[in-house]
């Protein structure tokens, strides 16, 4: 409907311009001696003149062109249309096809020239407007195009105009609301919809594109960033102003676009009362506390007011920093923080911890997690991910009511050493939990944004070094979620209390790693494969092109929380077989027996009915 209205409006506009052009030609030819015969001849001929011009315009595709992006080719088409109309009018007039001269030859020629001038001016109005705006917005500083002409965009423009010392000059608004197009806000014009971001960025020499849509969904932000990709401008986010701005501190109101902004994920809500009900006034142990997920778990647990929070890690510096960062919050909640420097491979020290503090809850996040490293050193995965998990489970037997094992999607239909070791950890947790009839469970999820060694920090480091970004395969896909989201859902899963259960978090949609690389390059203000190259290096040993969250032998059902699903427990053996296997396998856990060790892991999993994906091994 909008297209039909646009075409009808174009016909009306062209008819008006043609009338004005030939009317001016008549006045130029006869003024001040315009008589009635000449005027009547003009009025009688005008419908034919307009009709012929509109027909030729249609035949040359004038009404099917995007004149907002008009070029020389479009101008030539209009010249041909007007020229042929003039030739036909001259022919009809000279041959007196209608029994008379339609119009004087001079009027036809001048009318055609004026028509061409007016029609071209109407078609190239946006190009002329861009040049005019460009001249009116001279600035030696950064030129900003603001995407979003709502209250946030208007506030941003006002702040920038009020602080010229920042060196930033807003040159235009972009907004999808067509009612705003052509309007002026704080003296800055609303230029067009988001589809024209590239056009206006190039024509106005824009240095920075500011996305000022705080309430927009991540899908809209992602679409906007994609539309910004072909430009060379830096992309920034305006999250809104919540307090006074320090003079000159431009980063307070504009920040870099983070990858979290592009994830199509809703905010997570958990049952705070349910979670607080099992954590408040309890003694909680978090292993791997200094890691990315472990440290966030500590922060979230601390907010629920446990009596003690015991943070276990072997990394002395990071454990110290974590303790210092939580002290202020701990004073408010009345929680006693206990940084406990300990390896989970030290069963005596773990037993000492349990005997001294008598904790009720363990979040076990300590693990090795990097696929290619563990493929090279499977014995380390065995000792830390399997023996370490057994150590903490054994030490917990006399005290712990709830044990939450932090797992990974690599444990589902495993194909690599990390997956094998974490799946065995799940089996240990489930079998011991069911035997003791306690709330021992595992929580399985995919990649978390910003964790140490994950793909995003690696890509950002490569970009900062000038590239190239290395991608293993153009079709490699992964699930992603934020660290706070993962930690909150782990807390929620721990509240369910079903012995031996395995929970999987809602990871949303898979993201292609190649597309992720392109987005990150663009968000840093560079152009993919121009400023920063993307290099395909081939898949690494043990790597899948795509991950799954549960194996073919696992049945999935809903849990009490919409963002968490539960894998129904299989009739697995008790823990004795696994513990016996671990004790027997310790002799293989040496650099000289790596192949035998990996094969032994696979065989114990198969004996428990776990499907092994060997297609990519």
Would you mind describing this structure in some detail?
This protein is α/β, with parallel strands linked by helices and 617 residues long. It has 3 domains: 2-123, no CATH class; 140-257, NAD(P)-binding Rossmann-like Domain (Rossmann fold), CATH 3.40.50; 272-448 and 480-508 and 548-607, NAD(P)-binding Rossmann-like Domain (Rossmann fold), CATH 3.40.50. Helix content is 47%, strand content 14%. Strands 10-9-8-11-12-13-18-22-21 form a 9-stranded mixed β-sheet, sandwiched between helices. β3 and β4 (188-192) form a beta hairpin. It is elongated, with a radius of gyration of 35 Å.
Structure at a glance:
This protein has 617 residues and is of the alpha/beta class. The chain contains 20 helices and 22 strands. A hairpin with a 2-residue loop joins strand 3 and strand 4 (188-192).
Oligomer status: single chain
Integer count of domains: 3
Q: Unreliable runs, pLDDT <50, ≥5 residues?
A: 242-248
How many beta strands in the DSSP annotation? 22
Radius of gyration: 35 Å
Give the CATH H-level superfamily of the largest domain: NAD(P)-binding Rossmann-like Domain
The number of helical elements comes to: 20
Give the overall shape.
elongated
Structural class: alpha/beta
Under the CATH scheme, which class of the largest domain? Answer: Alpha Beta
Strand percentage: 5-15%
Indicate the CATH architecture of the largest domain: 3-Layer(aba) Sandwich
Main sheet strand line-up: 10-9-8-11-12-13-18-22-21
Average of the residue pLDDT scores: 84
CATH topology of the largest domain: Rossmann fold
Residues in helix, %: 40-55%
* Biggest sheet character: 9 strands, mixed
Q: Distance between termini?
A: 56 Å
């Amino acid at each position: 409907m909008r297209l039909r209205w646009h075409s009808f409006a174009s016909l009306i506009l062209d008819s008006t311009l043609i009338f004005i052009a030939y009317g001016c030609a008549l006045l130029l030819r006869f003024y001040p001696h315009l008589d009635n015969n000449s005027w009547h001849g003009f009025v009688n001929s005008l419908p034919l003149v307009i009709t012929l011009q509109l027909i030729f315009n249609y035949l040359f595709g004038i009404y099917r062109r995007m004149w907002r992006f008009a070029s020389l080719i479009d101008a030539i088409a209009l010249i041909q249309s007007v020229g042929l109309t003039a030739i036909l009018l001259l022919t009809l007039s000279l041959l007196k096809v209608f029994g008379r001269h339609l119009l004087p030859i001079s009027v036809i020629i001048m009318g055609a020239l004026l028509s061409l001038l007016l029609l071209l001016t109407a078609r190239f109005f946006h190009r002329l407007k861009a040049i005019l705006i460009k001249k009116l917005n001279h600035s030696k500083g950064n030129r900003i195009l603001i995407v979003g002409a709502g209250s946030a965009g208007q506030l941003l423009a006002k702040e920038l105009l009020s602080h010229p010392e920042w060196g930033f000059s807003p040159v235009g608004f972009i907004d999808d609301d067509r009612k705003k197009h052509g309007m002026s806000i704080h003296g800055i014009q609303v230029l067009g919809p988001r589809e024209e971001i590239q056009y206006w960025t190039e024509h106005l020499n824009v240095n920075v594109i500011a996305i000022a849509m705080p309430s927009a969904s991540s899908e809209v932000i992602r679409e906007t960033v994609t539309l910004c990709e072909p430009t060379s401008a830096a992309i920034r986010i305006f999250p809104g102003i919540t307090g006074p701005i320090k003079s000159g501190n431009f980063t307070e109101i504009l920040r870099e676009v983070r990858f979290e902004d592009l994830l199509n994920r809703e905010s997570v809500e958990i049952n705070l009362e349910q979670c607080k009900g099992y954590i408040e006034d309890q003694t909680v142990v978090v292993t791997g506390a200094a890691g990315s997920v472990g440290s966030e778990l500590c922060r979230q647990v601390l907010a629920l007011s446990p009596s003690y929070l015991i943070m276990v890690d072997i990394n002395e510096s990071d454990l110290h920093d974590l303790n210092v960062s939580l002290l202020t919050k701990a004073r408010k909640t009345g929680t006693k923080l206990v940084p406990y420097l300990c390896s989970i491979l030290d069963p005596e020290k773990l037993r000492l911890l349990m005997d001294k503090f008598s904790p009720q809850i363990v979040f076990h996040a300590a693990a090795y997690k990097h696929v290619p490293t563990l493929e090279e050193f499977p014995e380390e995965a065995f000792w830390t991910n399997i023996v370490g998990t057994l150590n903490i489970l054994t030490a917990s037997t006399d005290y712990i009511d709830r044990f939450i094992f932090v797992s990974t999607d690599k444990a589902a239909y495993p194909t690599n050493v990390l997956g094998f070791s974490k799946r065995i950890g799940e089996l240990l947790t489930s079998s011991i939990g069911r035997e003791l009839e306690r709330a021992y469970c595992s929580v399985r999820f995919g990649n978390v944004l910003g964790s140490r060694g994950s793909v995003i920090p690696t890509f950002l480091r490569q970009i900062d070094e000038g590239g190239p970004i290395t991608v293993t395969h153009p079709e490699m896909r992964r699930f992603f979620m934020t660290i706070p989201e993962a930690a909150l859902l782990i807390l929620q899963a721990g509240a369910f209390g079903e012995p031996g259960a395995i929970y999987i978090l809602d990871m949303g949609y898979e993201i292609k790693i190649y597309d992720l690389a392109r987005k990150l390059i663009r968000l840093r203000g560079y152009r993919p494969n121009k400023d920063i190259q993307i290099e395909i290096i081939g898949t690494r040993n043990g790597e899948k092109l795509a991950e799954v969250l549960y194996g073919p032998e696992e049945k999935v059902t809903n849990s009490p929380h919409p963002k968490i699903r539960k894998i129904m427990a299989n009739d697995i053996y008790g823990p004795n077989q696994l513990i016996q296997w671990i004790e027997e396998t310790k002799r293989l856990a040496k650099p000289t027996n790596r192949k035998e060790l990996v094969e032994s892991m696979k065989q114990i999993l198969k004996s428990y009915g776990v499907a092994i994906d060997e297609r990519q091994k």
